[in-house]
Recover the amino acids of this structure.
């Protein structure tokens, strides 16, 4: 069979979305199946098989033999972390420092809440073993590694039945000899255990964050390796003849083998695929400056893309655990369509963090929940269809939502509609705060960005959120509900390489800087070879992290085409922009060299559609009374059917656009137009 | 004007977002380890009357420095003389609203349409003014009343020069002051943008409403507690005072009001004295934690509270009492309030935490053949300890408690910046008080000097111990352990190259009688080396 299908699979908590792209004909097909949380590989295999049988029925008992590329975004590592379902893990570390894992940065988990606890320490104290050894910051060895102590520790851990061992020594990133030797001894004594060492996983300074990363990697390692192995076997059984890929937290995809060795790099695999999808759509639509707004049922992910690029954070705290790994700068808020509204002791309206989830769901589902959720507020206002949701598949009862919201309204002394609208305003304010974190707090003015809304609830709340932030433009992609799966087919392969080299930013350092980048380039070239990327399809981009001597936070400065003098002036400019000053008094340092390697692959092309003129009246399916905050009353509002909207169509708010997986609100004062890719673009009139 | 509750909520979120952002700017632009890594700094917004609009979730005691600063500025300078771009610097405990001299505050007025509408304020604990005396405040460092560091956006170089000449590491001070200015610049811009969006009157009214809201929540929480008076006593001990000092508090609930009446001895010729604002900040912190941790940290929460202590006592000192180590006393006061409230809301408090903010101060000359050779280096760090056991849970091990919450400095940052090597950093077995729920463990941090330097330590609970509740046992003492050749003269020692010493922080009290601890929990503590076999046997009657 010809391998002509590119397959993207996003496996979420409720559904597994399969996106199939035909390379020959350029068409995209979508298939959705229920997820199988006990072993997600089962649902994935089923979805892939069913999806492929629909589009390529001739492949017989090897339906996946027509697949040219397989990409996957997963929440397996995240879920294992949230639910603490990793394996029994041991730690071997520098004498005197076994408690570092528990002490962390010595801060308590909540400033005011006496009852708050730290996240559980993943390796209990009796499995954290110390060995005599000490390296200094200069790389000099103060105490040689006691190899017999390592062997004794290995045997103790073996007797305790650990499945994974983390090795992390002070300054292992400066001089990895001791860690390497310890790994070799552990390998001899525990041939079947998953081993992970600091210098391999996170070769950067700050010992606690590095230790936390290595321990997490070990703790998740066997879980991820087992999952990947099962998925690989199932896909091979379906006839898959190409190497499958998986998204990392940095948005890049890697081969299954690399993913199995570095599971800690996949904790944001799921949300990062959405960012990648948004990136491709924004680029095609000529809107490379985006803030993504992926609002689901219980949580919302936001990220900022400048000139098509999402900033990489080199470190983040995920579910309470610090991780040093390249991660897209994605900010998650625990609020979504299912978040519950309530009045607190001081009489203010609050929304979330509790959520009604998919079951029992909002009050209007009539499955037992009586506390109004954000969805109920939308049903009351009739911005959401008051009779059924999900394109008619889910009948609902608006009167129940009205009763629930009325209960809050009575206690607030406000009207029913004002209260429903108030619930949305509070949610919007929380979302705006999250977006400020990734925009203004990073020095970006959201007014210069387009808000890209996706996920089940994103398009409904996007326009008001944009207004709150003075953003002028909102983009709702053609299929907001499956953007993540789609993203997998729109991305290049990507890997990030970095090395810490503390250098003065002076001409004298130019050679060492060039040598550092040469070494990173060599690593990238080896990776390109592994992934089978032709030389013409290899792309490299280099940045230098710089700071004033004395600071501990750096600014990333583009290295391309720079001399030392231009690096310095770019740094001064960036510092002035971020902090309002630059100075000649403090010398500037180079801290880390970073190289991003992209392997260009054949991607699903976003299809354009012919222009149909501005008249969108043919797409109006019906009218409905919708309560609008702008006029504080109901108004007969046209309801457009998304599938009937064509490029060039243009209409003014108030309007509602309905499609199977999402509803878009176009409020008064905004106009909507459809571009060539069937994106819906909302702009302030 | 009246603002609807939803707009109030939205503006409240925006104010919180501003103080978070100013704090992050300060940390990222700063140079000293105490700020950039240990995050010993705070940010806040104040209204034109000098009342707290919003304080970032950094360090509760820093509120003490903020509380009286703007009123001090207003008293010293007629409002019509204050202009956009002015920035006031201050640190004094008696004339500047500060609680100790290293905490330097910079306050900048926010103007809209030529009217002063609010203040952006930040505080950074500068690692300076060390190796000083503490008989009175004149020995403790440079006293800075609120003066303009910037006038109309221009640095007042004469003022800056005067301050920097009195600092031990002037270059680092200047860099950190710049970071503080960068943070305020962000605060001014963000507040002005917020006012432009909603209208100045709306934002200011929302600020008032947020205070009313905090007040209502505080009153509701107090009203839920039965009326009554509860007394608690403890002692304060450390190297600076020759014998333990008796302290007491009486907590009285009357309807929706709470009174805290403190008793303490006359202020001492030692750095242990607390200014009244330090007492207020401590009390606000504890009351908020127990009553409702979600109450907004603004001036409204204080309205139902009455807090008194004898003027001229160590809990409400007057000039020229020394105040550098006031945090030790603050921590003791925080625990005492919990001890009193334990008698009425036992499920909402915890046993005594380590009651300390254990500090090590180092000063020396940069070694030859290193950057800055021959210049003075100063390093200070604070070390966590046990946190008290709770009604249904063990205490937290090795954390910062109560009025402070700074990070440790990574070993790999410490050793690159200073001629010190860290030999051990660990939890101390048997240091948590026994009980149905165990008190948190103290920490041991072992330092070695690679070149000659001086060290001073500030710790407490060497004589007394952190108490348990309802039959729980006390935590272990705090102490200093000197290696060979190291002799502490009181709280100070000279370290020669190769010398080491250990600082051990106190453990916390347990909750409930130890014979009610489950055998599983004892077995786990024993397996993990949290308790020794001897204490398993003696305190819990446990043998494997």
């Amino acid at each position: 069979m010809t391998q002509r299908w590119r397959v993207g699979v996003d496996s979420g908590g409720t559904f597994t979305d399969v996106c199939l792209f035909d390379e020959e004909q350029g068409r995209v097909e979508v298939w959705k199946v229920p997820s199988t949380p006990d072993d997600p590989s089962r649902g994935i295999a089923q979805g892939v098989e069913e999806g492929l049988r629909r589009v390529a029925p001739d492949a017989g008992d090897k339906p996946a033999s027509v697949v040219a590329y397989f990409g996957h975004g997963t929440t397996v590592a995240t879920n294992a972390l949230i639910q603490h379902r990793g394996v029994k893990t041991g730690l071997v570390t520098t004498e005197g420092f076994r408690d570092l894992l528990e002490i962390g940065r010595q801060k308590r988990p909540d400033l005011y809440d006496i009852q708050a606890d730290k996240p559980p320490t993943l390796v209990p104290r009796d499995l954290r073993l110390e060995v005599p050894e000490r390296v200094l910051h200069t790389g000099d060895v103060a105490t040689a590694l006691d190899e017999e102590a390592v062997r004794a520790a290995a045997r103790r851990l073996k007797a305790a039945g650990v499945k994974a061992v983390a090795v992390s020594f002070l300054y292992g990133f400066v001089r990895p000899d001791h860690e390497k030797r310890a790994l070799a001894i552990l390998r001899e004594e525990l041939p079947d255990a998953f081993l992970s060492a600091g210098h391999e996983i996170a070769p950067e300074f700050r010992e606690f964050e590095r230790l936390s990363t290595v321990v997490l990697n070990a703790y998740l390692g066997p879980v991820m390796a087992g999952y990947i192995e099962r998925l690989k076997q199932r896909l091979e059984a379906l006839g898959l003849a190409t190497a499958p890929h998986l998204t990392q937290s940095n948005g890049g995809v890697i081969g299954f083998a690399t993913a199995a060795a570095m599971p800690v790099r996949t904790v944001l695999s799921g949300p990062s695929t959405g960012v990648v999808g948004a990136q491709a759509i924004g680029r095609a639509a000529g809107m490379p400056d985006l803030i993504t707004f992926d609002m689901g049922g219980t949580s919302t992910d936001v990220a900022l893309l400048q000139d098509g690029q999402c900033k990489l954070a080199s470190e983040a705290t995920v579910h309470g655990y610090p991780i040093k790994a390249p991660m897209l700068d994605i900010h998650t808020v625990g609020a979504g369509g299912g978040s519950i509204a309530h009045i607190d002791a001081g009489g203010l309206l609050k929304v979330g963090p509790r959520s009604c989830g998919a079951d029992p769901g909002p009050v209007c589902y009539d499955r037992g929940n009586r506390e109004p959720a954000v969805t109920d507020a939308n049903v009351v206002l009739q911005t959401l269809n008051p009779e059924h949701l999900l394109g008619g598949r889910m009948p609902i009862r608006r009167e129940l939502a009205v009763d629930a919201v009325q209960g809050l309204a009575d206690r607030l002394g406000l009207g029913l509609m004002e209260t429903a609208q108030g619930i949305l305003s509070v949610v919007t304010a929380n979302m705006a705060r999250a977006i400020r974190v990734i925009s203004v707090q990073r020095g970006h003015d959201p007014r210069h960005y387009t808000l890209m809304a996706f996920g089940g609830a994103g398009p409904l709340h996007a326009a008001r959120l944009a207004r709150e932030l003075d953003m002028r433009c909102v983009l709702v992609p053609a299929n907001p509900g499956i953007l993540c799966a789609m993203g997998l087919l729109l991305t290049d392969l990507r890997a990030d390489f970095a090395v810490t080299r503390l250098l003065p930013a002076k001409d004298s350092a130019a050679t060492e800087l060039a040598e550092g980048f040469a070494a990173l380039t060599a690593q990238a070239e080896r990776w390109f070879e592994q992934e089978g990327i032709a030389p013409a399809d290899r792309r490299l981009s280099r940045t230098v992290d710089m700071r004033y001597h004395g600071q501990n936070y750096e600014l990333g400065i583009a290295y391309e085409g720079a001399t030392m003098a231009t690096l310095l002036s770019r740094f001064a400019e960036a510092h002035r922009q971020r902090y309002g000053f630059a100075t000649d008094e403090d010398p500037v340092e180079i801290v880390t060299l970073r190289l991003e390697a992209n392997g260009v692959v054949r991607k699903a092309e976003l299809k354009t559609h012919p222009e149909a003129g501005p008249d969108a009246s043919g797409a109006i399916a019906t009218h409905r009374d919708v309560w609008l905050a702008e006029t504080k009353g109901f108004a007969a509002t046209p309801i457009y059917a998304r599938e009937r909207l064509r490029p060039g169509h243009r209409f003014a708010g108030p309007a509602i656009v309905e499609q199977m997986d999402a509803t878009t609100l176009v409020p008064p004062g905004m106009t909507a137009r459809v571009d060539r890719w069937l994106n819906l673009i909302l702009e302030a009139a | 004007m009246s603002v609807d509750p939803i707009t109030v909520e939205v503006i409240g979120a925006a104010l919180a977002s501003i103080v978070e952002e100013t704090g992050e700017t300060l940390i990222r632009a700063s140079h000293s380890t105490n700020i950039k890594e240990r995050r010993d700094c705070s940010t806040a917004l104040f209204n034109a009357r000098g009342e707290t609009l919003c304080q970032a979730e950094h360090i509760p005691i820093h509120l003490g420095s903020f509380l009286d600063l703007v009123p001090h500025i207003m008293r010293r300078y007629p409002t019509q003389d204050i202009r956009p771009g002015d920035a006031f610097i201050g640190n004094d405990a008696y004339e500047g609203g500060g609680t100790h001299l290293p905490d330097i505050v910079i306050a900048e007025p926010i103007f809209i349409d030529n009217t002063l509408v609010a203040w952006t304020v930040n505080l950074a604990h500068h690692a300076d003014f060390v190796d000083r005396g503490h008989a009175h405040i004149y020995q403790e460092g440079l006293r800075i009343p609120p003066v303009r560091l910037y006038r109309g956006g221009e640095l007042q170089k004469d003022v800056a020069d005067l301050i920097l000449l009195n600092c031990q590491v002037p270059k680092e001070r200047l860099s950190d002051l710049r970071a503080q200015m960068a943070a305020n610049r962000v605060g001014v811009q963000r507040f002005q943008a917020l006012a432009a969006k909603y209208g100045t009157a709306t934002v200011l009214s929302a600020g008032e409403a947020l205070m009313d809201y905090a007040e209502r929540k505080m009153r509701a929480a107090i009203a839920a507690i039965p009326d009554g008076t509860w007394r608690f006593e403890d002692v304060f001990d450390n190297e600076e005072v020759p014998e333990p000092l008796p302290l007491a508090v009486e907590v009285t609930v009357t309807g929706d009001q709470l009174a805290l009446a403190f008793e303490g001895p006359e202020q001492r010729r030692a750095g242990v004295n607390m200014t009244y604002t330090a007492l207020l900040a401590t009390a606000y912190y504890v009351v908020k934690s127990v009553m409702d941790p979600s109450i907004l940290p603004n001036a409204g929460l204080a309205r139902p509270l009455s807090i008194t202590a004898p003027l001229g006592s160590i809990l409400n000192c007057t000039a020229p009492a020394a105040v550098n180590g006031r945090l030790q006393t603050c921590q003791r006061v925080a625990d005492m309030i919990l001890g009193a409230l334990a008698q009425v809301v036992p499920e909402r408090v915890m046993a005594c935490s380590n009651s300390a903010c254990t500090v090590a101060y180092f000063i020396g000359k940069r070694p030859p053949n290193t950057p800055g050779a021959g210049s003075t280096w100063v390093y200070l760090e604070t070390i966590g300890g046990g946190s008290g056991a709770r009604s249904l849970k063990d205490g937290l091990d090795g954390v910062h408690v109560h009025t402070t919450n700074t990070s440790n400095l990574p070993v790999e940052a410490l050793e690159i910046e200073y001629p010190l090597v860290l030999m051990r950093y660990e939890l101390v077995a048997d240091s948590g008080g026994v009980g149905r729920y165990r008190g948190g463990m103290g920490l041991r941090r072992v330092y070695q000097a690679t070149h000659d330097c001086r060290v001073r330590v500030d710790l407490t609970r060497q004589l007394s111990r952190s108490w348990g509740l309802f039959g729980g046992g006390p935590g272990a003492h705090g102490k200093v352990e000197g290696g060979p050749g190291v002799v502490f003269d009181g709280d100070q020692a000279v370290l020669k190259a190769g010398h080491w010493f250990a600082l051990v922080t106190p453990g916390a009290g347990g909750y409930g009688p130890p014979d009610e601890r489950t055998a599983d929990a004892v077995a786990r503590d024993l397996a993990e080396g949290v308790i020794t076999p001897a204490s398993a046997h003696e305190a819990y009657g446990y043998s494997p």
Observations:
- Chain A touches chain B through 67 residues (CB under 8 Å).
- Chain A is about 30% helix and 30% strand.
